[in-house]
Each structure stands twice: as structure tokens, then as C-alpha cells.
Amino acid sequence: MLNIEKAAIVLKLLGDKTRLTIIKILDSHDCCVCEFVEIFQMSQPAISQHIRKLKDMGIVGEKRKGQWIIYSLNKESEYYLFIQTLLQDLPDQDFKLKQLEQQGLRILCE
Fold it and tell me: How much is the pTM?
């Protein structure tokens, strides 16, 4: 169980629509920054800043795959169960990845 201060910090962080959507996508799919750039139509530095904030809190983890970094939801995070409770009531975002696939942009980092 989180204390109120930590819960408030997480809620503030996820109060941003882009970060909340990133977390919802990462709940079911690992992704690289290039995919988020296409999904949100934002610059790579802007997406990287969102990811950095999530990583700094330990909500998102990363692993190297060749020259690419793949991001995933950190299931070991102290916030994971709290975040799962929030995500279960949000609409699925898989359609955004399916749109990328249809455009041939789903796997830019391979």
C-alpha cells in the first residue's frame, strides 16, 4: 500500500494525457521511442522527456535491443499495483499500435 504522498506524486505524473497513454500502451506492449513518436506525432526529444519522468519514478524500465532501447512497464515497481488499479478502468489503446502496423511503422527499430 502506498502512502498518500507517493500516491499523489504518481497521480500527478500520470495526470498528463501523453504519459498516461504511454503507460496504458506499455501495460500490454513493449515499445521504443520511435513508435511513440509516430503514435503521438511528437518530437523524439519530447517523447524522451515523458519517458525519462516515468523512468525516474521507476514506473518504466528499459532494455537494450541492439542499438535500440525498448521500454516496458516495470512490474517490480512499488507503484505497479496502484497503477494497475488505475489502468483497468481505462480504454484499450492497442488500436494505436495496430494503426502503426497498418502504416508499416510498428517496427521501425528492428
Answer: 0.90
